[in-house]
Amino acid sequence: SCGRPVEEVQVHDWQLYLARRNPEDGESCIEAIVCTMDLEDYISLIETAAAEEGLCLDDAAKLEVTLPDAEFGEDMVTGGFGDFKGVSVELHNRCLEELMESVCNLLVERGLAVACVPDEDVIFYLPLPRQV
């Protein structure tokens, strides 16, 4: 949209990758543009945008504690928890999850495929129209 070749377009500090029809040929047709972002950076962007609109996501955060199932042995009357192996504490924010889902749906409607890899990356894939 800016009139420059795809190779020259800058998007903040994120690396853009060009998906070519033939990956070994640097001159082959560009099929799509791919960008990856750390999941934490993506969440931070959404939290910042939400805060600018007056939505406080911190209020919706909840801690969830998961305990292991009790282990009952032959000589045990009440059961034990195996030295508490398997205890986990997670912070869940349903409002943030719904907001992320809404943003992804909006991006998909605009032609951008989005995939969130839990605890890793967010991958954005923009297919380009074929040159005739």
Structural commentary:
The chain is an alpha+beta fold and 132 residues long. The chain has one domain. Helices cover 23% and strands 28% of the residues. The chain is built from 2 helices and 6 strands. The strands form 2 sheets. The protein has a 4-stranded antiparallel beta sheet. β5 and β6 form a beta hairpin. The longest helix is centred in the last third of the chain and has 16 residues, at 94-109. The radius of gyration is 23 Å and the shape is elongated. The mean pLDDT is 80.
Summarize the structure.
The chain has 132 residues and is α+β, with helices and mostly antiparallel strands. It has helices at residues 39-52, 94-109, and strands spanning 16-20, 30-38, 61-66, 88-93, 113-116, 121-127.
Give the total of beta strands. Answer: 6
Tell me roughly what share of residues is in helical segments. Answer: 10-25%
Distance between the termini: 18 Å
CA-based shape: elongated
Task: Describe how the helices and strands are arranged.
Elements: E1 16-20, E2 30-38, H1 39-52, E3 61-66, E4 88-93, H2 94-109, E5 113-116, E6 121-127
Antiparallel strand pairs: 1-2, 2-6, 3-4, 5-6
